Amino acid sequence: MLVEPRRIELHEESSPAPPPGGVVVRVRAALTDGTDLKTYRRGHPKMPMPTRFGHEFCGDVIAVADGVESFVPGDAVMCVHTAPCAQCYWCRHKQEELCDDLIPAMLLGAYADCIAVPKRIVERNAFHKPPDVTYTEGAFLEPLACVVHSVVMLAPEPDAAIAILGNGGFGILHGLLLQRAGHNVTIFGRRPERVELAHSLGLRSIDTSNAPMHEAILQQTGGRGADALIECTGTAELWEAAPSLVRRGGTVSFFAGLPAETRVSFLAARLHYDEVRLVAPFHFRPSDVRAAFDLIAERALPLTRLVSHAYSLDQIATAFRELDAGTGLKFLIEP
Ligand SMILES: [Zn+2]
Prior knowledge:
This protein has 2 domains: 194 residues, Medium-chain alcohol dehydrogenases, catalytic domain (Quinone Oxidoreductase, Chain A, domain 1), CATH 3.90.180.10; 134 residues, Rossmann fold, CATH 3.40.50. The chain is built from 12 helices and 15 strands. Strands 3, 4, 5, 6, 7, 14 and 15 form a 7-stranded mixed sheet that branches. The longest helix is centred in the middle third of the chain and has 14 residues. Zinc ion binds next to helix 2.
C-alpha cells in the first residue's frame, strides 16, 4: 500500500477470491516505472491514498471464477492493468484509450503476492505467457503497449530521423522499437549510466549534460531539425522547446505527461507556417496490447537489459527510496 507520498507499507491480507468472471494471479515478477515513481513522490489524482500500488506484472493463475474458460489454475499469464468497456462513445469510435471507464476501473496492486484480475481484463487484455518468455519479460507488456501506441500515433516515415528526449525506460523502449523498424534514432539524455546503456544496446545516444540539446539535434540532422521528436522527460521546459527542434513539416509527440493544471506555449508560426504537427499519445488500445504481446512472444527486443536492480517484495520500500534518490532504471520486484 502507498499510504501517503514516500510511505509504502506491507499489509497482510487473506488471498483474494476471483472476482466474477476473473482470475487470481500469483505475481512472479513486477516492475517499477516512471508513473509509479511520480505517484510515490506526489500522489496521483486517479489514485487517492492509501492505495494498492504497482501496475506492471506477470505471474501464474492460481484460481478462476466459475465460467472462466480461457485460463485454468497453473497457466502463466501476461496482462495489462486496464481494459476498455467496449460500449461507450470512445470505444465505439475505436479510441479505446479514451474509454470513459478505463482509468476508473484500473487495476493496481502488482506489488503483492497475489492480485485479483477482473473479468474485463481477462477477456480483452490477457494472454497466455509463452514458455520461453520469462516472467520479467512478460511484465513488460504494459509499458511496451504504451510505446506501441505512441509509435502508431507518431506514424513516422520509413527512414525518419527521430530524436528521443529522455533516456529513462520509456525513452530506451522507444529507441529499441523504432530502430528495429528501421528508423534513424538518436536518444538525448543526461545520466552517464543511461547514456552508456543506450549505447550498449546499439542506440545512438548523446549525453546532454554539457551540450545544449538544440545544437546537438541540429548537428545530427544537417541543420534542419529532426523529422520527428518524442518527448519522454515530462518537463514543461522541454514540451515548450520541442516544436523548435523538429524540421518544417515535422512531428512532435508529447509522450510523457505533465501535471494536469500545467499550461505550455509555443510559437504559433511553427504550427501554421511551418506545419509542425503535434500529437500526444496516451495509454493504449487492445490492438496495441496485442502488438506488444507479439513483440514479446517473438523476443524481438532485449527488454531485460532495462532492469537495473532486483528486490524481493519485503524490500519494496527500500526499492522506492533508491528510485527516488535517482538510482537505476526499471526495478524488478519478485515476491
Ligand atoms: Zn468505453
